[in-house]
UniProtKB/TrEMBL annotation:
Cofactor note: Divalent metal cations. Prefers magnesium or manganese.
EC number, as in UniProt: 1.1.1.38
Alphabetical GO biological process terms: malate metabolic process
Enzyme category, top tier: oxidoreductase
Cofactor(s) needed by this chain: Mn(2+); Mg(2+)
Molecular-function annotations in GO: malate dehydrogenase (decarboxylating) (NADP+) activity; metal ion binding; NAD binding
Annotated SUPFAM superfamilies: Aminoacid dehydrogenase-like, N-terminal domain, NAD(P)-binding Rossmann-fold domains
UniProt-listed CDD domains: NAD_bind_1_malic_enz (cd05312)
Domain Malic enzyme NAD-binding intervals: 270-521
Residue ranges constituting the Malic enzyme N-terminal domain according to the UniProt record: 80-260
Keywords: Metal-binding, Oxidoreductase
Protein known as: NAD-dependent malic enzyme
Length: 554
């Protein structure tokens, strides 16, 4: 027995196998001859040594053979678990093809099916059962150099509602973009799902649901869970930035208020969305020739995204010298009960600054007719809400109507790109939350781009991480919006694109991180010495999905 044990090493001794099983170290068929010897890999791999390019070709061939987007998602998730560098190489080199799979819209479907497609856990699940021991749970994470956590409690996943622990797909997807779009090293990222229960009856009745089969915690218990998590996360991973994602708005605004002046944190749905939308507005105004001060913006929806955008529109106008009261009057909200007006007594706190003197209006179409907005922004997750009549009405009194259909995923989009362009006779200045293909109308080609916070959060997080900023502030989001808008070229605008191409997202993120870092240094929030050339420094810190050398792998 002893002899056998010696002759056949135990798994722990089999260095080669462990390397192949570690996605951070594994190069698969790309291990060189020397590495195969040094790491005991001989025979564990087929003999042909592949280049990374050959591996990419193989992955793409298989990926493209998958019959559905969900199958493609599962395929990429498996690659992520197998070979991190190859996964990010593919994401970075094929952003237009891969982003809609790891991110919206497919990630929404994946979250809906999460318990059924689940293969391997990724990230940390902190549940209500962990009360009193969350620090120990976080300590189970194998690394201490985590710099960015994206946390969700799964209560408002995209526009799909309460998906409970299935919402883990969102932190995982967002953090994949952190690495692919902003070069944050994957080992510095940690997805967290805070399982406070779910009120989704379908999930509670689904034996394959992966979360607690319990109703959501009530406010006091819930707040205690979040507080324990935040405290433990900051102790376990000193300096970590915490991004709150896809919380329901009854918690999102409160938690932002509670933590924004205490730790480096932001709410992506409120603040990241605000920056991308303001950037889109600034780009649209370059085409229409107007100024923010001259706009009337009607939001369909009055939640996190709407209030976040409206607040940043106001802050931007105030920074341009407009008085706050006047600035507020440019923004109008329309919620599930109609136009938000002063006489209403049912308004949540975040709606009050936009409750103007006006008679009640019951339908969005009537609101458009009465207010004659220059821009409509859809953030209510009501698919198809921008009807033909609404877009035609917008086009009747605006030479260049601004139409942003920002709800996700695609099924919740207020209108398609084709509808916006066709119904406006090719005059709409359009942006969408989820991707739409290019549209040709009367020989003119329009290339819609995504008004999605994915243009903002990777660079925002990178800037905060690199500087060790102690806070993530509103001026940083304003700067991100302006930086992003500044990267839109006349060629982009000529084809209807209000954002730069996804292919340039790493450069976009580097510029946003630089703008954020400049503020962190100026406001003395940074914890590192200021480099001479901030942009060059930021670029030099960005992860490249190159394979580590065998020496590193050992
Ligand atoms: N493109 C992007 O980057 C982002 C897009 N989004 C998308 O925006 C959508 C909303 O997100 P978020 O703001 O966080 O969600 P919230 O739940 O905070 O807000 C939703 C809002 O929609 C309103 N609403 C619901 N039904 C209707 C209706 N029939 N007519 C008018 N308003 C209605 C709600 O009204 P009431 O207040 O009365 O309940 C609420 O104000 C989602 O689809 C999300 O995916 C969000 C963040 C980023
Ligand atoms: C994009 C995003 O954050 C959302 O739809 O929730
Ligand atoms: Mg979100």
């Amino acid at each position: 027995m002893l002899q056998t044990a010696k002759a056949v090493p135990s798994r722990d001794d089999a260095r080669g196998v462990n390397v192949l099983r570690d996605p951070g170290l594994n190069k698969g068929t790309a291990f060189t001859e020397e590495e195969r010897d040094a790491l005991d890999l001989r025979g564990l791999l087929p003999p042909h040594v592949c280049t990374q390019e050959e591996q990419v070709a193989r992955v793409l061939e298989n990926f493209r053979r998958k019959p559905t987007d969900l199958e493609k998602y599962i395929d990429l998730a498996a690659l992520h678990d197998r070979n991190e560098a190859l996964f990010f190489r593919i994401l970075m080199d094929h952003p237009d093809e891969m982003t809609p799979i790891v991110y919206t819209p497919t990630v929404g479907l994946a979250c809906q099916q999460f318990g059924h497609i689940f293969q391997r856990p990724r990230g940390i699940f902190v549940s209500a059962k962990d009360k009193g021991r969350i620090a120990r749970v976080l300590a189970n994470w194998p690394r201490r150099d985590v710099k960015i956590i994206v946390v969700s409690d799964g209560e408002r996943i995209l526009g799909l509602g309460d998906l409970g622990a299935n919402g883990m797909g969102i932190p995982v997807g967002k953090l994949s973009l952190y690495t692919a779009c902003a070069g944050v090293p994957p080992e510095q990222t940690l997805p967290v799902l805070l399982d406070a229960g779910t009120n989704n009856p379908q999930l509670l009745g689904d034996p394959l649901y992966i979360g607690l089969h319990d109703p959501r915690l009530k406010e006091a218990e819930y707040d205690a869970l979040v507080e324990e998590f935040v405290t433990a996360a900051r102790e376990t991973f000193p300096g970590v930035v915490i991004q709150f994602e896809d919380f329901a708005n009854h918690n999102a605004f409160r938690l932002l208020q509670k933590y924004r002046d205490r730790i480096p944190t932001f709410n992506d749905d409120i603040q990241g969305t605000a920056a991308v939308a303001v950037s889109g507005l600034l780009s649209a105004l370059r085409v229409s020739g107007g100024k923010l001060a001259g706009q009337r913006i009607l939001f369909q929806g009055a939640g996190e995204a709407a209030a976040g955008i409206a607040d940043l529109v106001v802050a931007t106008m105030v920074a341009e010298g407009v008085d706050e009261a006047t600035a507020r009057k440019t923004c109008w909200l329309f919620d599930s009960r109609g136009l938000v007006v002063k006489s209403r007594t049912d308004l949540a706190h975040h709606k009050l600054p936009y409750a103007h003197e006006h008679a009640g209006v019951a339908t969005l179409l009537d609101a458009v007719k009465e207010l004659k907005p220059t821009a409509i922004i859809g953030v209510a997750a009501v698919g198809g809400a921008f009807t033909k009549e609404i877009v035609e009405t917008m086009a009747a009194f605006n030479d260049r109507p601004i139409v942003f259909a920002l709800s996700n995923p695609t099924s919740k989009s207020e209108c398609t790109a084709e509808q916006a362009y066709r119904w406006s006779g090719g005059r709409a200045l359009f942006a969408c939350g989820s991707p739409f293909p290019a549209v040709e109308i009367n020989g003119q080609r329009f290339v819609p781009r995504q008004g999605n916070n994915s243009y903002i959060f990777p660079g925002m997080g990178l800037g905060a991480i690199l500087t060790g900023s102690t806070r993530v502030t509103e001026p940083m989001f304003m700067a991100a919006a302006r930086t992003l808008a500044g990267l839109v070229t006349p060629e982009d605008l000529a084809q209807g694109s209000l954002y730069p191409p996804l292919a340039s997202i790493r450069e976009v993120s580097a510029c946003i991180a630089t703008a954020v870092a400049e503020i962190a240094f100026r406001e003395k929030l940074a914890q590192v010495p200021q480099p001479g050339d901030i942009l060059a420094w930021v670029r030099s810190q960005m992860y490249e999905p190159r394979y580590a050398s065998a020496r590193t792998a050992q």
